[in-house]
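Sorry, explain these tokens?

___
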Amino acid sequence: MRLCRLATTDDIDDIAALMALSIDRLQTGFLAPAQIAASRAVMGLDTGLIAEDTYFVVQQGDRLVGCGGWSRRATLFGGNHSAARDERLLNPAIEPARVRAMYTHPDFARQGVGRQILAASEGAARQAGFGRAELAATLAGAPLYRACGWTDLAAIDATVDGVLVPLIRMGKLLG
């Protein structure tokens, strides 16, 4: 049985390991090796999500098999180390919440873990008063989001040291 719960600071090392494994293995087939390496600069954990109780982990037994969350802040994607972060609080009456940092352990891909985290994040953002949400999807993650009712809004070309990391800005009504 899988348990979805709020992440704590005790989970940070396991989350970081899961993210690294997910980036390295699940992006294969969508990105070239140089793009996968560059994507580490634009992806990763924002520990502020844990501090604000908006980040979830999914466990199967003692094993962390997925993580992800949502934010009331304007930053669309990236971890603590990412440039161009915007910590401004969003106005739920007129701005969309952000779904952030969704990762699944490769051994559990396409087994409902991502859907479980996404549902928890959407529900929590809705309870916080947000009527819409946006996210930055990787090419590997976009099929899941589309299957869950998200629509493409725009291409995002994140560039790291001259290497393009393609992302897709997606949106959804949370009503």
